[in-house]
Specification:
It is a single chain. Strands 18, 19, 21, 22, 24, 25 and 26 form a seven-stranded mixed sheet that branches. The protein has a five-stranded antiparallel sheet with strand order 1-13-10-17-16. A four-stranded antiparallel sheet has the order 5-2-9-8. It folds into three domains: 143 residues, Immunoglobulin-like, CATH 2.60.40.150; 136 residues, Immunoglobulin-like, CATH 2.60.40.150; 235 residues, von Willebrand factor, type A domain (Rossmann fold, 3-Layer(aba) Sandwich), CATH 3.40.50.410. Helix 6 packs antiparallel against helix 7 and helix 8 packs parallel to helix 9. It starts with a strand and ends in a 7-residue tail after the last helix. The protein is built from eleven helices and 26 strands. By secondary structure, the protein is α+β, with helices and mostly antiparallel strands.
Length: 577
């Protein structure tokens, strides 16, 4: 979402950044707080245009008059109509003028379904929204995922239109032309405002309590409600904080004249953050504050049952920097040939329980219902698979004893002694199921070996000039026992094209694991005193991610593009033209 970064040089992002810092990283409690208010991950506005060729000719005296209808496929398989093009008369090779505007979200599989109809002449006087589709002649359909379009070098994808007979259940539909879908990222997603914000004289109703302030920037929508689009880092115990630069694109703001609500909160680890004060300003007004050097007073809302007027506070908001520029976006790097490679490491320690018993975290349900390990693999893999051309994913296990061997803290999930890759997400699931029959659960829980293996692959790719970014998913049921070794491995890996998602399954107390996510703002430090160059870890207990259209596992994926951009910008890597 909001382009909020705390590392001025390296962490510039074009779209969708949360907080990234060499001193402060996004806090899980803050993220959950914002999610509850409608905050989501990276999105970029995409404009999609359509053309077709060699359509079926259903008219007797003339050519077909085609119209395209676009649907989004929901997780339950149902279709939601998004838009319709105009009708192009007498053409089997139409190029529709009307374009679809859609928000691209990295962490969500956005499946699009396209239906082409021949509109009968008697309905040409009606607006396309008024047309009843069952009265038009069906010409064919196609489907794809939005990620498949934006990862093409020219952002164009040509699909075969197929004709499915409603009266038959044939699995061999007839081909009836082609549909070409082309995506362009809207310029508003690239035009970015960079601001450094500061507050003075922050007050607190309890004089003896500390203030750990952070800002949330929201835009107002037609319903008069507000949606968070940007946030800063949390600064500890400071009444006069200056936050690191935030980046806000025009798409998020709406326009330079659109009102923005800037709220200052006092951080609370339980997620119930206290509102200190707020101010409403457009980008135009924020720029005027910067040019004048003056501050603007925050105000607080009246308490229930009291005077309805807002209370003006002594606290003030200042804008210490205000610049506008055009930034390279995550999608620019994808179009330039960058790929994302999925890796997975599965915990096979004995604390998971006997896989043959239903109370085991590794139990394979005969009904087909996935266990927590399988569900995490599916939710992450189904997103990342579209960003890797060969879809060959390294997969490891740790904490088990292979047949007639010692305990291994990094073994190939496929059972091979020579290679660790499997084919696609399905290959990971098959290798995982097979491994359950071929290893004995043991322990302890060590992350260091699998992180070092992932880092080695990322390092070799970087040294060979590869344009790949790696995402390692570690799924575990217990607290890591080699904490310092894990920190050492993470600090070393922080310079590499690598992000690590750790998902905790089961009922263990994972509080100690949160230190790996640097959720309190402290950078990871190795045993030798070396400090991580950036935050590459996201951790979440799986019990906190159940339910909802978008799971928190996918919300963790939303951080990956920001970490990717932090990495490439720190090395001054540019997208290929």
């Amino acid at each position: 979402m909001g382009n909020c970064f705390s590392d001025h040089a390296a962490a510039r992002s074009a779209v969708g950044a949360t907080v990234f810092s060499q001193n402060n990283t996004s806090n899980v409690a803050v993220d959950c707080f914002l999610l509850s208010r409608g905050y989501r991950g990276l999105y970029s506005q995409i404009e999609i245009s359509f053309s077709a060729s060699n359509l079926r000719d259903r008219d007797v005296c003339s050519k077909s008059d085609p119209m395209l209808v676009v649907y989004a496929k929901r997780r339950d398989g149902s279709l939601e109509e998004l838009d319709r093009t105009e009708v192009v008369q007498n053409s089997l090779n139409p190029k529709w003028i009307h374009k679809l505007n859609i928000n691209y979200q990295f962490e969500v599989v956005q499946t699009l379904v396209f239906f082409v109809y021949d509109v009968d002449t008697q309905y040409h006087s009606l607006g396309v929204k008024m047309l009843k589709l069952d009265e038009q002649q069906y010409l064919g359909e196609a489907t794809c995922v939005l990620s498949e379009i934006v990862t093409q070098s020219d952002r164009s994808l040509t699909l075969n239109l197929v004709y499915r007979e409603e009266s038959t259940s044939s699995t061999h539909p007839h081909h009836c032309g082609k549909l070409t879908v082309h995506a362009e990222e809207c310029f508003s997603s690239k035009t970015t405002t960079e601001m450094i914000l500061r507050c003075s004289n922050l007050g607190h109703k309890d004089l003896f309590s500390r203030i750990d302030p952070f800002l949330v920037i929201s835009k107002t929508v037609e319903s008069k409600s507000s949606i968070p689009v940007c946030k800063t880092e949390v600064i500890k115990n400071d009444l006069n904080p200056t936050w690191k630069p935030v980046f806000l694109n025009m798409q998020q703001a709406g326009s330079k004249d659109s009102p923005l609500i800037i709220e200052c909160f006092n951080f609370n680890s339980n997620g119930r953050h206290e509102l200190i004060g707020k101010v409403q300003k457009s980008l135009v007004e924020l720029e005027k504050l910067f040019l004048s050097g003056e501050g603007d007073n925050l105000f607080s809302l009246p308490a229930a049952g009291h005077d309805y007027h807002n209370k003006v506070l002594k606290s003030q908001l200042f804008v210490d920097k205000f610049t506008e520029s055009v930034q390279q976006t995550f999608l620019d790097y994808l179009a330039g040939g960058y790929e994302m490679n999925f890796m997975v490491a599965v915990d096979f320690t004995a604390s998971n329980g006997n896989p043959r018993l239903p109370d085991s975290l590794h139990f394979i349900d005969p009904s087909g219902r996935p266990n927590s390990y399988q569900q995490a693999i599916i939710e992450v893999g189904e997103v990342l698979q579209f960003y890797d051309s060969d879809k060959r994913f390294p997969a490891w296990g740790f904490g088990a004893r292979p047949i007639d061997g010692p305990v291994s803290h990094c073994f190939n999930l496929n059972g091979s002694s020579h290679y660790c890759e499997v084919e696609g997400t399905r290959g990971i699931l098959m290798a995982y199921t097979s491994a359950l029959h071929n290893v004995s659960l043991a322990g302890p829980t060590l992350f260091g070996p699998v992180i070092n293996n992932a880092a080695l692959i990322a390092s070799q790719s970087l040294a060979n000039g590869g344009r790949k970014y790696f995402v390692l998913l570690i799924i575990t049921d217990g607290v890591v026992t080699d904490l310092q070794e894990t920190k050492d491995a993470l600090v070393k890996a922080s310079d590499l094209p690598l992000s690590i998602l750790i998902v905790g399954v089961g009922g263990a107390d994972f509080k100690e694991m949160e230190v790996l996510d640097a959720d309190k703002g402290e950078r990871l430090e190795s045993a030798t005193g070396r400090v991580a160059s950036r935050d590459i870890v996201q951790f979440v207990p799986f019990r906190d991610v159940q339910g909802g259209e978008i799971s928190v596992v996918q919300a963790l994926l939303a951080e990956v593009p920001h970490q990717f951009l932090t990495h490439v910008r720190s090395r001054d890597v540019q997208p290929n033209s």
